[in-house]
Amino acid sequence: MKYFSMLAAVTGASGHLGANLVRALITRGWKVRALVHCDARALEGLSVDRVSGDVLDEESLNLAFGGVDVVFHLAARISVVRWDRKQVEAINVAGVQCVVNACISAGVKRLVHTSSFHAQTQEPLDETLDESRPLIDSNSSPPYNRSKAAGERIIRAAILNGLDAVIITPAGMIGPYDFQPSHFGATLLAMAQGKLPVIIDAGLDWVDTRDVADTMIRACDYAKGGAKYILGGHWANLKDIARQVSQITGTRPPKIVLPLWLAKSSAPLVSALDRIRQKRPLFTSISMKELESNRNLSHMKASKELGYKPRPLQDTITDTIDWFKVNGFLYSR
After folding, report:
1. Which pLDDT tens digit goes with each residue over 200-235?
2. Helix or strand or coil: residue 255?
3. CA gap 11, 14 in Å, rounded
4. Which end of the chain has a smaller Cβ tally under 10 Å, C or N?
5. Residue in 59, 4, 53 with CA at minimum distance from that of residue 28
6. Superfamily for 7-179+205-235+295-314?
7. Helix axes 209-222, 16-27, angle to 10 degrees
């Protein structure tokens, strides 16, 4: 099965992954219809058909998906706090159902849905996490993780009812074209500007957003309906990432390195202060919990079936910092 050079609709087109996917699609000769909710900076200068819409407005989705061959569903509310739980659940759960309904109504040939490896049960941490690992089913899990698991269940139910869909599950994403910027993009900027005095002695599995975008297109073209792929990359400690950013920018790395247990105990106070000061929260109980995620992600299935090969993390960080420099983020914030 191959849909190459057809018409694709992309939800979340102006987000971090969306900005990379839209560019990858255009490069490969696709025509792109970009669903835009508010911020469209990531699409400036691109030859795309912009459509105003909302994943919670099924009527706008019906219009956006009309005549479309493939829908790439990227739109999501990413959150590391608990106070926006209702909005997270609305967009990441009800929004997925609206997208599924609109795909069926419009006769879309294939839906490529973006999930998250945080939607899967992380334990046991010392065993490989692959596509067979079950989705989380616990009220104690962070709202974002629960919402992504619920959204994936909606996709799976639709697949059983005949919808041709593929599920892509990325690790933590880093990469250029991070206009908003993303949660970790903001952390990289703080490192690069010398505004992050404290770093946590913990890490995550990181993947280049460009590699995710490229593999989503290959999955659209070649994957069997109902397939799911984990796109892991390279596990790296935040200390090592900060050290590399320091080498690139010449700024000093954070002086204080906190063990994870101490960071977790301090996070509630720091995030409360950030909320009072109306400052974007980066250091929260949830973001600390995510640093305890399984570090043994397997991308064997994606590599075998789609030729997935994650680029070196060092290249990703260098390219991302360079992109921030060129686009005025690094010295203007």
Report:
1. 999 999 999 999 999 999 999 999 999 999 999 999
2. coil
3. 8
4. N
5. 4
6. NAD(P)-binding Rossmann-like Domain (3.40.50.720)
7. 50
